[in-house]
Design brief:
This protein is mainly α. The protein has 14 helices and two strands, in the order H-E-E-H-H-H-H-H-H-H-H-H-H-H-H-H. It is globular. It is a multi-pass membrane protein.
Length: 300
């Protein structure tokens, strides 16, 4: 009885399919990271582009290594502006994630419990803001939060306040804008996780005498942890580097990495220092991503 010979074409096709994600990561993550790191290890210059030295050839590797400059990274630790911007960004991004989770979880849970014929419409309502320009939605919040704006008119109209609350140009306004903008990214993964829950588990818990709160804490919440982790990542990662919302809704005291990057790149034209800020931000994000991946693996 002859042994079948594996076809080489199938093996080659499988290797190609497996290589595509790695090629994608190399082209759109590793290569840009290397370029930014190269700029971060250069010196600022008045030329175009505004950094030196340029990329060396293969024969200039020794000269390239000797020209590397860590001064930009040392400056990030010496100047309080930069490490305070990291801490402020982490704080605002964490608060945004927690508030979005507190609002998004009940909303997603209600959507998952709604009749099937209504779930599609509810999903459309969640993603409906994406049909409008992000910038226009942020500008709309300026009209709502500014002194004598819609919010002040409503609060004074119902007698809760007698003078403008002046939320615009504060960290509270930044939080409001960021929670509003990123809330759908929290709701959609949570809805997907909650919709897949096995209803027989809830019925079994009820038959065994568990109260609704106990059933939620022991069955629903643990099974929805993958959705919580996915939604938290989708909110926290873009929120920590947000630029538009802090710039439009925040004040002069609102300090975030996105604004620092913009100022260094376009106002000061210090590309090496701005690249160093971006590299450190990426490293700061790697740790929560690793913890998230470990937590997701533990829940499987």
């Amino acid at each position: 009885m002859s042994t079948p010979v594996p076809r080489a074409s199938g093996t080659g096709r499988g290797l190609l399919v497996a290589a595509i994600p790695y090629l994608w990561l190399i082209a759109f993550f590793l290569a840009p990271f290397v370029i930014v790191l190269r700029i971060a290890l250069s010196d600022a210059a008045t030329d175009q582009p505004p950094y030196a030295p340029h990329f060396p050839g293969i024969g200039q590797l020794g000269e390239f290594l000797g020209a590397l400059d860590l001064e930009n990274f040392r400056l990030l630790g010496d100047d309080p502006l930069y490490w305070q911007s990291y801490l402020s960004s982490l704080r605002i991004a964490a608060l945004t994630t927690l508030i979005a989770l507190a609002i998004g979880y009940p909303l997603a849970y209600a959507m998952a419990l709604a009749p099937k014929r209504w779930q599609g419409m509810l999903l459309v309502l969640v993603i409906l803001p994406f049909w409008t320009s992000f910038l226009i939605r942020v500008y709309a919040w300026i009209g709502i939060l500014r002194p004598d704006g819609l919010l002040d008119m409503a609060l004074m109209g119902i007698g809760l306040t007698s003078e403008p609350v002046r939320l615009l140009n504060t960290d509270a306004a930044v939080l409001i804008g960021m929670v509003y903008s990123y809330l759908p990214f929290m709701v959609l993964p949570l809805f997907g996780a909650l919709q897949k829950l096995d209803g027989t588990l809830l019925e079994a818990a009820s038959d065994l005498g568990a109260k609704p709160l106990t059933t939620f804490l022991t069955v629903t919440l643990p099974l929805s942890i993958p959705g919580i982790l996915a939604g938290s990542a989708l909110v926290f990662i873009p929120a920590i580097g947000e630029f538009v919302i802090p710039d439009l809704l925040g004040g002069s005291d609102t300090l975030m990495v996105g604004k620092v990057l913009w100022n260094e790149f376009f106002s000061n034209r210090d590309w090496p220092l701005a690249s160093a800020v971006a590299i450190v931000l990426l490293v700061v994000l790697v740790l929560p991503l690793m913890l998230l991946q470990r937590a997701r693996g533990a829940t499987r």
